[in-house]
Amino acid sequence: MRTFDSLDAREILALAIALEEEDGRIYESFADALHASYPELAASYEELRKEEDGHRHRLLELYQARFGTSMPLIRRQDVKGFVSRKPIWLTRAFSPKAAAREAESMEIETCRFYERAAQRTSDAAIRQLLGDLAEEERRHEHTAQGLTLSPSEETDAKARKRLFLLQVVQPGLAGLMDGSVSTLAPLFAAALATHQSWQTFLVGLAASTGAGISMGFAEALSDDGSLTGRGHPWARGGICGLMTTLGGLGHTLPYLIPHIKTANTIAVAVVLIELSIISWIRHRYMDTPWSTALLQVFIGGLLVFFTGVLIGSS
């Protein structure tokens, strides 16, 4: 994976073209998904698609004028600093609110990309075009906000909520899910294999701590925050690592109880509470319907739990 600072002007333009192509396809998908129930919103997304297509044509013209017709294949997933996008427009839970939030996030990221790209090039024509596109993406960001904001709502309050979601909720939720689910198999496998609370507690403590360190570093190294506005990478990594550790310790602490059957019962109850909390967070902050959140989280948790039971009982 390349770093953004390692890209030259030719690669920056190629990446910008790929970004505009992807954004245009996403907006087209939004328009198609919303057309039947929300025709006015669909028309707004179709207009955004046309503008992104116009950006692409302007970038292509400049690229061909500077570098010819041969273009390197470089995409957002090839460059460190971009956030992985889930195809929310293909899910049953797709909604106007989810579309607007995704569109705003896309435009913020693309605007940051153009601003940084413009600072790194010495070619006057490329610098001017990238600066112009940054300003146009900034207007798109306000357009995306207007698709959900009523005139009476505070823009700065929405901005604070978005930053809280990007910098705290998302890494914290990722850590909590990993810690709560991934440690189930080793913990209950140890409980059933040893029938001893202290040994099980040590396994759970090691699994929780190790998972916390691993997830913390993975989150910190995945995105430096310069293009996405997700905050300092080590702050996100700390949040993610801490929540991962806490997610595993929740159902590990009952094994401080010497009686193994009592510890098992309490640990199972704690697991159910943890999975319910994760489902609530997904519903509250990620706009996931209750039924979908509960189904996804509990199926994953039960699969890992039964894996530990089968291994521990063998």
Description:
With 314 residues, the chain is mostly helical. The protein has two domains: 143 residues, Ferritin (Up-down Bundle); 159 residues, no CATH class. 75% of the residues lie in helices and 0% in strands. It contains ten helices and no strands. Helix 2 runs antiparallel to helix 4, helix 5 packs across helix 8 and helix 5 packs parallel to helix 10. The protein is elongated and about 75 Å long. About 2% of the residues have low confidence.
Mind sketching the topology for me?
Blueprint: H1 9-34, H2 39-67, H3 96-120, H4 124-146, H5 155-182, H6 184-194, H7 197-222, H8 233-250, H9 260-286, H10 290-313
Provide the descriptors you would attach to this structure in a database record.
314 residues, Ferritin, 0% strand, elongated
Element order: H for helix, E for strand: HHHHHHHHHH
Q: If you compute it from the alpha carbons, what radius of gyration comes out, rounded to the nearest whole angstrom?
A: 23 Å
Tell me which oligomeric state these chains represent: single chain
Low-confidence stretches: 149-154
Shape: elongated
Euclidean distance between termini CA atoms: 42 Å
